[in-house]
Structures are given as structure tokens and as C-alpha cells.
Amino acid sequence: MTTLLTLNEVHTHIGQYHILQGVNFEAKEGQVTVLLGRNGAGKTTTLKTIMGLTPATKGDIAFRSQSIKKSPTYKVAKLGIGYVPENQGIFADLTVEENMKVAMRKEDTATLERQQYVLELFPDLKKFWKKAGGHLSGGQKQMLSMARAFINDSQLILIDEPSKGLAPIVVEKVMEAIVEMKKKTSIVLVEQNFIMASRIGDTYTLIDDGRTVNSGNMQDLIYDEELKCKYLGIG
Amino acid sequence: MNKKISLRSFAFFLLLAIFIILPFVNDSRTLLILLTQIFIFGILAMSYDILLGYTGIVSFGHAMFFGIGAYTTAVMLKQMDNTLLIFVLSIVIGMILAGFISFLVGLLTLRLKSHFFAMLTLAFSGLFLVLAEKWRSVTYGNDGFTFRAPDLFRDRMTFYFFVLASLVIIFLALYRFVNSPTGRILIAVRENEQRTKSLGFNTLHYKVIASVVAGIVASFAGSLYAVSLRFVNTSVMAMDITLDALLMTIIGGVGTLVGPLLGSAVIEYAQHALSGLARDYPIFERWIIFFGILYILAVIFFPKGIIGSLRLLFWKWRGRLKQQKTTGPQPQEKERFE
């Protein structure tokens, strides 16, 4: 299986704070890699660092063997990395349609086909096509955010806590959508909800205090009570 | 949607018809001059709205572009000839100059965070103000100079119609611009710049585009302003002009294009009415204080501006109407407790 993304001893500083102090992991093509860890462990910062929003100060980040450590955010996105941030980042004054159009870098047949696909995946978006993004519910915003990341033939999508603040029934829908999206793209997922993460993820990386402490197959972690108890507080 | 468009078009053509007929119905010279000023400052305020309302950029140096347009037209009409051709040429040269300078200033400053950008634009504007003051051989410094407008504009009414036509054309062009894909990206930049970057857009490019468009339109407004007064001095580059544009945009409603036009009408009329009251009531000699109070009240009670507040009321009313349609009329407070 081809390695899409590699993080090698990545360090990130935000102001005077040393947030990431050695993050290592690989994301492989066609897989869902889940970043797990307690609150404040550095999972969100890891995604932001990959996107160049909080640039890495040490180590290397490579996408398809090409270093993106010093690339500006828009170039990282153009390379084929989609990003669904924690707060969804919906443009509140634009309609659902406009939010989708802003995200489209090309308006070719393939993009329109992908749009059709995501609208089937998230029928609510079709229903509220002309509604302003700011007027959508939390779940609909999450769906719109994911749809936008998917619209541009992204080879890898980084999704940050998609279940956060959503009702259980909506979380179920979002999870089903991620499972569907997995068939077409690779995903790096940050998720606090271990039950959800373990059902979707193929591999995991445990982050604690800004460092990678363990990686492996999700199936192994499910049965490793000690690791779960030590780093996730489960068990 | 069609209904919405037709309602908007109807309001647009109705207002246009009123402004076309008005000079023939009311021959007041004061009214004609006031309306001309409202239209000119409306153009300036719309240009500021592209920055503040659509891209979220606060600039304290917008007067610089207004001044460039005003001085280019005034100097060319004085030193070359007062023909229509020179006037048109001066507008084009002013716009090119303003476009070039806004491109350079934008490229140098728009990388910075908003407050640093605002301060730097103020510094650049100050630089141009000093240049206008010191380059006396051309600008005549603070005293300024008078010049002759093209013969066609000697008749105030002809100039009024020229300015009205310019306003309509610029409004339609800017309306198209903000509703284009580029316009949508500008709104995205205003709402969440980081998110726009992570969608693959180099936001600096788009901010520079907004800055250049705003600069070019402001220069055009400056050219018209100079001809309307047949006089120019350094006040066209002063901070007051930027503040006026800012107030017009905020009072009318940011990010609406129509709002700044309305803001221009409110502020120009308030200035005219309050200073006029000073003739009968000496207290109004300090009309600027009342103007300040008016502004504070407007910001407290209408933080979204006139158009923004009206839109909010409309949405609330429509929401209530929809709710009534789906659930039937809501019970009165008393009935609910019973």
C-alpha cells in the first residue's frame, strides 16, 4: 500500500509554547488513520501543521514523497489535501451552493460528478441548497464542511473531530458518510469518540503531550486495555 | 428568486426614474448640488465597502486614492486644457495611478494582520498628504487652486446627469463583481481567511484584487469631486475623507453596496441640515458634535447599519410567517399559561 503522508519528528511552536514535540506517523492510501489522544495532546495542531496553518519548526512532512513542510497552506490544499476543521469553517453569509462553489477549484465534469455524489451522501445539503450557511444546524454544517473538502479530487482528507457537539443520531450519519468517503479517498481522522474511531479506523496513532507514543492497527488497540487506559482514559 | 430579482429591479428603476425626473420637478440649485455630492460620496463609499464589507479589510488610507483622482483631474484640467477629452484622459490616468499604487501598497501591507495593515495604510496616506503639501509647484500646497471644468459641465444639471450615470454604471459593475466567483472568494476571506487558504486559495492575491478595485473606484470618485468643486486642495487627502467613507459604509450597512449609498445620503444630508440650522440656532455652529452623537446612536441601535437592520427585521418577519404557516397561529401569552 502506497504511503501518502509521512510525518517525521515534527515539532511545532505556537508563540512561546512548544506544542508538538516529536510527532511521527504515516497515512496510507485507501485507509483511515485515526489520531487519538486526550484533550490538549496536540491532535488538532498536528492537522494544522500538516496544512501549514501552524508551520512546523523542526522535522519533516512529506506528501507523496514531496516535502510540504515549508509550503503555504493554499499550495498544500492544491496538492490534494482537503481539510475539515474542528469548527467546520462554514462561510455563514454564503448559501450552501455558494459554499460548495467557493470550494471548487475547477468546474469540470469530474467535479460536478463528485458534487452529485456528495449530495447523495448528504441529502440535507440538497434540501437547503439556497439557505445561508449560518442558518444550518451543527450536523448540516459538518456535512457541508466534509462535502467541501471532498469536492476537489482530494487524495487525502484531514477531518478534525467530526462528532464534536453533535446529537448521537447525527454522529451516526456522519460516520456512515465517512465510511462511504473512505471508498474514494484516504482519511486522517482526529476523534475523541473511541467507539466511532474504532469502527472507522484502519490504523491509529496515539499522541500524548505532543509526542507520538504508539501506532499500529486499530484492531490491536481495541483489545489493548492497558494502552487505552493509559492514554485515552478508557477501561 | 425571480420574484426577488424583479422586486429589486423594480426598486432600482423606480429610484433611477425619481432621480432623473427630480431636477425637472424641483429646480433648486442646492438640491442639485447636494444630490451630486451624495452620488459622488456614494461611489467612494461603495469602493470602501469592497474593502470593509466584502473583504474585511479596514483601511485608514482610502483618501489617498480619492486624492490621487482629484489631483490628477484638477492638475490636468488646469495645466493642459479644460476639454472633455482631457477630463476623460485625467480620469483614466488617475485610475491607472491609483490602481498601481493600491497594488504596490496592497502587496506590501496586506500580508500583515488587520491592525498593522490599518496603521500602515494611515502612514502611506500621510505620506501622500505631505507630498501634496510640499509639491507646491504643482499642487499649490494647502491653499489649493481653482481650475475650469469642461464647458459641458458648466451646466450643473449636465454634470448631475453625468455623475448619476457614473454611479449607476459603477454600482452595476461592482454588483457584478461581488456576485462573481472572485466576489464569493472575497466574502470567504472576510469570514474565515485561514479556511479560505485551506481550500486552496492564495488569499493575498484576492485581497490585493479588492484593494486595486477599491482604489480605482475611489480615484474615479475623486476626479468627479474635484470637477464638482472646480477647486482642489490637500483636504481631499485628509483623514476626514476616509472617516466619511467609513461612516457611510457602517451607517448604511457593510457588505451590501446599497447600504453605503444610503449612508452617503444620510451623512451628506445630515451635514447639510445641521450646518444649515446654525443660521437660526447658534448652538448648531458646533454641528460636528451633533453629528458625532448621531453616529454613536446609529452604531448603538443599528450595529448592522440601516440595510443590515432592515434585512434582519425582514428575516425575522419571514421566519415568523413560515412558523405560523406550518404550526398555525401561536397562542397568546395568556392562553399558554392557562
Automatic annotation (TrEMBL), chain A:
Gene3D superfamilies: P-loop containing nucleotide triphosphate hydrolases (3.40.50.300)
Residue intervals of the ABC transporter domain: 5-234
UniProt cross-references to SMART domains, sorted A to Z: AAA
Pfam families reported in the protein's UniProt record: ABC_tran
InterPro entries, A to Z: AAA+_ATPase, ABC_transporter-like_ATP-bd, ABC_transporter-like_CS, BCAA_Transport_ATP-bd_LivF, P-loop_NTPase
Keywords: Amino-acid transport, ATP-binding, Nucleotide-binding, Transport
Record carries keyword Secreted: no
Gene Ontology MF term list: ATP binding
Superkingdom of origin organism: Bacteria
UniProt family annotation: Belongs to the ABC transporter superfamily.
Protein name per its UniProtKB record: Branched-chain amino acid ABC transporter ATP-binding protein
Record lineage: Bacteria, Bacillati, Bacillota, Bacilli, Bacillales
TrEMBL record, chain B:
UniProt membrane topology term: Multi-pass membrane protein
Compartments, record wording: Cell membrane
Spans traversing the lipid bilayer: 6-25, 32-51, 57-77, 84-108, 114-132, 158-178, 208-233, 245-267, 287-314
Keywords linked to the UniProt accession: Cell membrane, Membrane, Transmembrane, Transmembrane helix
InterPro entries reported in the protein's UniProt record: ABC_transp_permease (IPR001851), LivM-like (IPR043428)
Any one Pfam family match given in the protein's UniProt record, by short name: BPD_transp_2
Superkingdom, taxonomy of origin: Bacteria
Protein name, UniProt field: Branched-chain amino acid ABC transporter permease
Species assigned in the record: Lysinibacillus boronitolerans JCM 21713 = 10a = NBRC 103108
